[in-house]
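Bench log. Compound arrived from synthesis this morning; before running ITC I wanted a structural hypothesis for how S-adenosylmethionine sits in the protein. Inputs:
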Amino acid sequence: PAKVDTYMNSHLMLKGTAPYDILQRIHDNSLERGLDDISVSPAQGKFLALQARLAQAENILEVGTLGAYSTVWFTAASPDTKITSIEIDPHTYSIAQENVSLTESSVSSRINLILGNAIEVLPGLLSEIQSSSRPHFDFIFIDADKQNNLAYFNYAARMAKPGALVIVDNVVRGGLVVDESACQNDGKVIGTRELIEAMKYNERVDDAVVIQTEGEKGYDGFLMVILK
Ligand code: SAM
């Protein structure tokens, strides 16, 4: 799968508005500065940017910044797309800031990084939306502590416009999502299953699907949800 990604990327990472050289520098700088290699892959970053472009996303929320690799990908959706991204770890946040500063001002000016625990930051963002001092989000990417997936999704539903797209990363977990022991003992699997199983009862969910992914980052998958 990694060789296939390399081959495909060598032919397809050419077009569009993504700052490919800077994205590579962000990836390399994140690893040099000691961040875990757990960002989305280049192909997944582009997939997310294309989803945001198709959704004509103007205001994106990301939960889980890491080094802002996916954050910068999202800015390629359109020259006007803005993204707010939340990161809990101060050191990681400072590397994300450093990485964003590598981008041109036309990109960095559209990125708002927030330092804090998402579960504490999201209520504040929600009240800003409710008081009309911040626009609703039309695309939300959830990629942080998996135990809180359902809580983040419930905030997302309250902060999003009708028709908004929510994507949650790592919902397959190498197949552990259906492993009997992991279902009992692995908090990340338990959090993921709570989210998946809540979809059919949630009144804001219009439609949802999980797409399994295989590639240079291994076997995993995205949950994609369209909100009513
Ligand atoms: N979206 C990033 C990318 O693809 O480039 C990868 C994000 S990484 C998988 C998850 C990040 O979420 C980590 O940097 C971690 O510190 C952060 N995180 C974990 N728990 C969090 C929380 N409660 N609030 C905000 N960020 C959190």
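What the model suggests: The CA atoms of residues 14 and 20 lie 8 Å apart. Residues 2-163 form a domain with the Rossmann fold fold (CATH 3.40.50.150).
ITC booked for Thursday regardless.
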